[in-house]
Structure formats: C-alpha cells, structure tokens
Amino acid sequence: MEINNNLRKYISKEILPRYASFDKAHKIDHAEAVIEQSLYLAQFYQVNIDMVYTIAAYHDTGLSKNRKTHHLESGVIIRNDSRLKEWFSPEQIEIMAQAAEDHRASSEHAPRSIYGKIVAEADRLIDSDTIIYRTIQFGFAHYPELTKMAHIQRAYEHLQEKYGEGGYLKLWIPESPNAERLKLFQALIKDAKTILAKLEIAYDKVVSEKDK
Length: 212
Fold this sequence. Notes:
The protein is mainly alpha-helical. It has 2 domains: 5-124, Hypothetical protein af1432; 128-211, no CATH class. It has 10 helices and no strands. The protein has helices spanning 5-15, 28-42, 49-58, 70-80, 90-101, 114-124, 128-142, 148-163, 178-190, 192-211. Helix 2 (28-42) runs antiparallel to helix 3 (49-58). The longest helix is centred in the C-terminal third of the chain and has 20 residues, at 192-211.
C-alpha cells in the first residue's frame, strides 16, 4: 500500500498545514490520526489507497469556511483543487468529494461509497478521555459565558446525545475497533456519577491550561 510520493509531498506541504489554524480538536494531529486509521481500515477492502489517503487528509479542510457546513465545504475544496487532477480522474475526484461530505457523524444518510464509510469510521476515533476533554474544550471555545456547572452539563448532554445508547453516532466498518470502544463508552456515560466527575477533571485541566 504505497501512496504516490508526489501526492504525499503535495498534501504534506499544502494541505495538512491548514489544520494548524483550526480549533484544538482539529489540529494536524487529528488529521494524521484519521489518515492512519483510514489506511488501516482500507486494507480490508479493494480500494484505491491514494484516494483513501487524500480524503482523510482533506476531510476537515472545510473548517476554514465554517464549522456547521465544514463537511460540505471540504467537498468543494476537493472539487476545486486543480492539482488533484494530476493523480485522479474526474470520477475519482467526485467520489472523494462525496466521501468528505459524508464523513460527519451527524449526517442523516449513510456514506455513499466505501470511501466515505472508511473515512467516516476513521474520524470517530472513540477514546473516552480524549472525547471528554475535547467536548469541554469545544464548550470553552464556543460558549465562554457559561459557568463551570453549565459547561459540565452541556458536555454531559452532548455525550449522551451523540455517544449514548440510541445516539446519532453511527459506525460503518465491522473491522474497526470502534464498536467495542463505543460499548464501553456508553456504559461510562450511563454511570452519571463517574462521567460527571471525569467532565469536572477535564474542565479543571482546560482551565489550568488557559491560565498558563
């Protein structure tokens, strides 16, 4: 599974650095983690590895426009990047654009291709401590007026809505380790005393980092 060297160089130089200006949950380390997990999941399917790599690298670039529709903006960025024509056909570029559009966890429809499913699954990155911390971080960035208890309550309700049993997060790839991780996280969310304590620890951590 060797990625085209010129494609890798272009993305490393021109695309991944864009993540440096995004919020803390979507920095370059996030993009690199999604790329790594996407390439791992790709081995179970007959797919074009260059396409998988490219979708994963571009999937959140639309954050440069706005957060609410960033998945759609990422698709626009892929379609409008003329350099991608050096490595992909128009049909492949359209598949990649649709996959980026379909990656968002709150999407009301299933990804339209296996490429969309791979990157959407890779983007889940279910790690309870990381999710809890980033949920609190998001609250600080977007709701700075909230009190400590309001931040914790907002985060708790978000975790229930997205990751709890019956939540809107969907998994697409059976070979992914996310299914078992999600079950464990759901059990944690149901334990209100423990999850609220973890949210408070995350809150205090974010405060201490802001004060440095």
